[in-house]
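Hey, quick one: can you model this chain's 3D structure?
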Amino acid sequence: MEACGHAKSFPFKQVLLIFIVFYFSSKDSHAVSFCYQAREHLADSLEADIQEYAHHFSKPTTSSPLKNYVDQPRMLYTLAKTAELAAEEFGARLKKTFRLRHVVNLKMLHNNVNTSTFWFHVVAFEDERFLTEVSFQAEIPSRDLQKNEFNSREIKLSEFERIQGTSAEETCDQLSGRASCKCGKLGRCDKGTAKISPGLAFALKTQREIQVDKAFDQIQMVSAHNAFNDRADGYGIFDDCPWPPPYNHTCLSLANQEFSFTDLLDMGVRGLEIDPWWCFGRMSMSHDKGKAYRGCAPWDRKYDDGIKEIGKWVHKPENSDEIIRLYFEDGPTHTYGHDHLINDPIAQFLGDRVLTPNDCKKYFPGRWPTAKEMREINKTVVTAGADQHGGDYIFNLYWNEMTRNDFVKKKNCSAIIPDKPSRVYCDSTEYLFFWNGPEETGVIRDFLQFMKCGVTYPAADQVNPVLLATAVFTWAKGEPSKPLTRESCVHLSGQTQRWFVSNCQEKRLFACQSIKNHKEWVTSSASGVYTKPTCPDGYKFSIPHDGLEHQMLVNAISGRDVWINISPYIDLLGSYEI
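Sure thing. Here's the predicted structure for all 578 residues.
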C-alpha cells in the first residue's frame, strides 16, 4: 500500500469584499444595491477577475450571449455578476437554493445616458435537484470602470418569471430515456429519478457482495470517468452529438456523463472521478482551465456542493454498507494550495465515514482492509488523488491507469500488471475541431471485456443502464428464478457462462479454486449433489469473486456446468425474486 504524503498549505487570498443590500422599491420591482469596496491593493485582483470572465466567454466552445461583450470586458463582468446575484435573489424569495448555470439569452431593451435595461433568460439549478429556466429584467446604471472601481450603484430587478417548457422539451433525451427518468428542462434527468431494472440492480449488488473478503485495492468497481461533468447538473447543456460515436466533427459533446452523482450511485457505479479547480474565486468542479477550448466556467458547480451530494447518499441507511471510491484528478496547479477547501467539505459531509491514511496505519498497518473490515469500523469511503492536500483524508494514487485505446493495443489482457490495481478510462467529449475524445482515447461500450481482464476500475463515459448491463458476469437474465434462501443452490452454465438457481439434488461437477493462487481453477473429478462438494487437494469449493476469476473458471470448465459456492453470501444478498 502506498505511504501517505503531505502537501503544503497556502493562505486563502481574499480578492473582493462585496456588500449586498436588498430592498423593495415598488410593488413590481426590486432594487438591489451593490456596494463594492475595492481598495487600491485589490485593484489588480479585480482586473484579473474581469479578465478571467472575458477569457472564458471568448473561448470558441463557450456558447453564451455574453460573448457579444468580450470587447467590453467590464460590461461583460457587470452583466455576468448581475445574473449571478439575480439568481441568488430569486432563490432567497422562494426560500430555495438557486445556482446560476447559464445565461441563455440576453437583450438590451433600453439605453440612455444614465441607465441601460437588459432582459435575461437564464438556466439555474434549483434545490440541487433539477434545472429550471427564468427570465427577468435588470436596470443597470452607467458605470465608470476605467479605474477598476465599482462605486455604489443601484441595479433594479423586475419580478422573475418561470419559463414553462413544452411537452417536447420535457421528453427525456436519448440517454435519460434509458433510465426511465423524470425529465424536466432540455430533456435532462431530474436528480434521484433514474432507475435500472431490479434484475440488473441485484446482479450488480451480487458482484459487490461476493468481493467482501477482498482487500479494498483489489475490489473491482464499475466507475465513471469525470463523473462531476454531467448534463443533469447543467454541464454540456447545449450538447448535440448523438450517442454513440463516431461524431460528425461539427457537433458539441462537452459533458462526460448524463446522470448526477446520486443517480450514478443509485444505478450501481461505485467509483467517481472529480476534478477540483480553483477559479473565479472559488473551488469548482471543472475541466482543465488551461486549454483554449475548455476549462473552468464561472458557474460550474461548486466542489463542496458535489461532496455534499455524495455525503447525503452515503449517509442514507440503505447505503450504509456500500463501499465507494472518490478519485480527485487534481494537483498544485489545479487548487493552488487551498487544501482546506478540499478537506473541509470531506470532513463536513462525509465525516467519519472516510477511511483515512491514519486509519489504515492504526488498524491495518502495511495493508488495505477488506470490504468486510471497512464495514465493521463503519469506514466505507476512500478518497485518492495525485495531491493529498496534507494527507488527512486523501490517499496517494495507488493504481496504474491508461486509456481504452492503450489497453486494447496489447492483446490478451497483457496491458494489466498482475495484482496491481488498474484503471482504464475513456473520454466521450467532442470540442468541435479541437478535441475528439472517442478518437483519442477510444470508447468503453462493454464493461465485461475489461472486467474479464481484471481491470480494477473500468471508468466509462455516458454510463447508463444499457452500458451497466454489460458489466454483469453473474446472474442470467431472469435469475434468480426462485427466492434465495440458505438452502439455495446455484450453478454456472458452461454454455451461457451465467448463473442459475438449480435443484440441489442434481449432480454436477464442482468449481474448485486453488488455496494458494486465486486465479487458478479446476473442476472436481466427479459429479455430485451441491451439499457434498469434492475438490482436489490444495483446492476448495468456491465461487468466482470478480470478472477475472470468472473468466479463469470459464476457461477451466470447457463448456460444462459446475456448482458454485454461493452459500457464504446468501445472507449478504438477502431474499430476492425476479
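One thing worth noting: The two ends are 40 Å apart (CA to CA).
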